[in-house]
Amino acid sequence: MEVGIIGSGIIGLASALALVEAGYSVKVVARELPGDDSQNWASPWAGAGILPYPESEGHDLQINTFKYYWALAHRDPTTGVQVVDVTEYFDDRDDDSAIWYKRLVPKYRVLDAQELPEKAKLGIRYQSLTVNPAIFLPWVQNVLLDKGVRFYRAEVKSIDEARSILETQVIVNASGLGALDIAADKAVVPVRGQTLHVKSNSHEIVMFQGSHYTYQIPRMYSGGVIIGGVSQEGSWDKKADAVTRTDIIQRFKELTQGKVDYSDPQKHIQDIVAFRPGRKGGYRLEREGSVIHAYGFNTLGYTYSYGVGLRVKKLVDSILGESKPPRCRL
């Protein structure tokens, strides 16, 4: 069976990977392709840490993704995937009862009170992974090309238009914010993010969540880290805001109790503004006839990615199963 995919972001590529590994023939159509640096898609600009979230849905999706990237980091360092230490702080919870991934990640421990920064109520430390999208996305595309996947550059506005280009009946809609038009889904919403790529030799993720959203995520082979951040739902402003940049730097300085200060402009590599594919009510991962919808993962696209691909493969299997003639029981 041939399967068409709309979108070559991390969800589309992961879906293509899971499908070709299962023996399906795959075609991909997308406005942007790996290597493009347009602000019109989110995947190249992500941090991108493989970081589960306490109240997130789809634990199995995140577990499968973690296992995939963990194996990849140990098997092939050219992918831009690396194992890192993670320290997470929270001021919106007093204990780790909601940290479901404590049984998944290595070296998990709860920090003592004296290890917490000011105002933090809980701190945890463990090992996880980061992905450098500038390396990883082209790597995945090359793997797919070697497996016979064909890529088409085009902006499509409907499922029917995608079918016309790809000539496949089964379509995976991994169009991110494009689902606003392609799926006529009014729940889709941009979530503006602004971060700063700075020079650093740190290999640790540091994250504060609750009353503010402040973090540092290493970007392998780049000579630096990504610091952030903001989540501004509904904003399409593409310009980096100087006030926001200063606020991010100050928040991270306070988080590290003055030990890390990225205010020197000589350390600044790049301002980054991009738009995460949010969806009110949560992500959509379901079958609708011969269409599989997989979008709306907001900040957790990389964290869900390969698990989503495996779920997409199961949903495509269900279509294939229906197309087979019934077996004779005589």
Automatic annotation (TrEMBL):
Tagged with keyword Flavoprotein: yes
Cofactors: FAD
Gene3D superfamilies registered for this protein in UniProt: D-Amino Acid Oxidase, subunit A, domain 2, NAD(P)-binding Rossmann-like Domain
InterPro entries: DAO, FAD-dep_OxRdtase
Protein keywords: FAD, Flavoprotein, Oxidoreductase
Pfam families (UniProt xref): DAO (PF01266)
Residues annotated as domain FAD dependent oxidoreductase: 3-311
Domain of life, source organism: Eukaryota
Coiled coil: none
UniProt-listed PANTHER family: D-AMINO ACID OXIDASE, D-ASPARTATE OXIDASE
Family of the protein in this entry: Belongs to the DAMOX/DASOX family.
Record's protein name: FAD dependent oxidoreductase domain-containing protein
